What we know:
The protein has 280 residues and is mostly helical. It has a single domain (40-275), classed as MetI-like fold (Orthogonal Bundle). It has 11 helices and no strands. The longest helix has 34 residues, at 3-36.
Amino acid sequence: MSPKKIDKIATGVLWLAALIILGILxxxxxxxxxxxxxxxxxxxxxxxxxxxxxxxxxxxxxFLSLLFxxxxxxxxxxxxxxxxxxxKLTDLIRLSTESLASVPSxxxxxxxxxxxxxxxGLGFSILGGSATLALLNLPIxxxxxxxxxxxxxxxxxxxSLALGATMWQTIRKVILPTALPGIVTGVTLxxxxxxxxxxxxxxxxxxxxxxxxxxxxxxxxGETLAVHLFAVKSNPLPGTNxxxxxxxTAALLIIMVLIFNIILALxxxxxxxxxxxxxx
Length: 280
């Protein structure tokens, strides 16, 4: 068999696999949204049994967790990619980071419950849940940032330094803008994972929700949409339509994840063009 024919067969197989994956994703979205969209209305969000508070808690916890993890994760990735020497210590740090990225989330949840809930006395709180989520996100952010920066061609660095730029100017004005799409992809992955996380938040943020729709008290318990979905399906309250609430919550969670990804992706492209000096 000729190499050209092998290439065509391999290309066809890869296209078929991509179409199958895309079809599964479309079917999943249509199935979930088709079952849940009929229940989404103002009453579903703001009623006495609505999920408006859970929706707010989901994004509040996500915001706090990214506030804790982004500076440390991106900073550590920049250090490992651009400044750290190649020795056994940095190899150990990378190995530890990769190992932490593969730890099940429930282990982080137990760790957060022991440290934040019990030892530090935070109790079931939004702050404890956010801090534990930050620990979950840190290894992924470090690895994604480092890999994205290492993917930038060395010629970019050499050209910038040859023109008299300092190392920090090179990183800030050349390397980071070029690596921005990869970093944003990593942030999107950890954000989506945080929005759908349940095990960690059950152990740290609790399964109660404030009666106030926009309660910003970080020491209050904070049930999220994902935790609420788990609670409704695992222990439905008598006299409530658990299936309707679960379907509506699942559809709302999917919509929020999609909207968040779009909101994060579009400004990042504009920022990348601006940082690289592309005005068109």
